[in-house]
Amino acid sequence: MPDPEHDQPEIPPTAEHKSGFVSFVGRPNAGKSTLTNALVGSKVVITSSKPQTTRTVVRGIVHRPDAQLILVDTPGLHRPRTLLGERLNDLVKTTLAEVDVVAVCLPANEKIGPGDRFIIAEMAKVKRTIKVAIATKTDLATGEQIGEHLLDIQKAGAGAGIEWAEIVPVSAKAGDQVSLLEELLVGLLPVGPQFYPDGDLSDAPEEAIVAELIREAALEGVRDELPHSIAVVVEEMGLREGRDADRPLLDIHANLYVERDSQKGIMIGHKGARLRDVGKAARLQIEALLGTPVYLDLHIKIAKDWQRDPRQLRKLGF
Ligand SMILES: Nc1nc2c(ncn2[C@@H]2O[C@H](COP(=O)(O)OP(=O)(O)OP(=O)(O)O)[C@@H](O)[C@H]2O)c(=O)[nH]1
């Protein structure tokens, strides 16, 4: 009699499934969102050349047979100057204590500065979370610069009492070392179940993603004038009724809030030209993301000093 138990080929011991949360921190423009996108492989998180565009905690998810890496993209930690700044920092700190790994992004083409040291000091206060340093944008630095940067990162960590679990140089733009980073991050995760079903890229509601896409479009071209003064609220979003199923149209009504009259003028532009451009750019982005033709109805409103007013902040979703 064959013994089924012993006829089975021996199954090699496989590593157990790992899962966990990773949060990227770093000063504005450090490359957090771009890196999240490079790891997730889809445009879920919003990037822009302007600082402080990431206002919502959006998760990108890396699905692998052996692991699930959930990326929590946080607003940039910074010295708060307004009520909004304080709220964002509180949000970041709560996030950091809850994640498995926190990774600080430090651009390789720039020296470590006071802003970076502030963030590293804040990281040092979160005791249990594993700490990683990522030298981002290595395509913008020479080999020599990168080597020096890695040493500086080591020293800055030691100065704050942090022993980095890893220091990894990457270029999200060039796709350099991104998969190595993924391997290293997965290696730091605890054994755990798959938290999200396959195919989920982000758990941010579509309205929040759409609002961020509009904000991103609105920020383009007003680089220096109003970087922190724009908020977008999607008031209504839904498929237009009475359309054929093969010709859907998504109606989106959104308000773009600025703080002052003068800013409203800038946003609208000469004879409304700027607002039209912003609307078109945002519409194309939304259509690309959601795969549906979009009618975007965009209005500009003034919410006076919204960054300092708790009532306005709540209304705008902070
Ligand atoms: N050359 C190069 N540019 C990069 C790289 N990663 C990011 N950038 C650029 O740096 C700028 C900021 O990148 P983001 O990913 O938006 O930075 P962030 O840290 O998420 O910024 P906030 O959301 O403002 O905190 C953008 O213009 C990116 O295109 C990189 O690897 N190489």
TrEMBL record:
Membrane topology: Peripheral membrane protein
Region (G5): 170-172
Start and end residues of each stretch annotated as G2: 52-56
Region annotation G3: where it falls in the sequence: 73-76
Compartments it resides in: Cytoplasm; Cell membrane
All copies of domain Era-type G, residue ranges: 18-191
One of the record's GO molecular function terms: small ribosomal subunit rRNA binding
A Pfam family assignment: KH_2
UniProt-listed GO biological process terms: ribosomal small subunit assembly
Family in the record: Belongs to the TRAFAC class TrmE-Era-EngA-EngB-Septin-like GTPase superfamily. Era GTPase family.
Protein name: GTPase Era
Native species: Nocardioides psychrotolerans
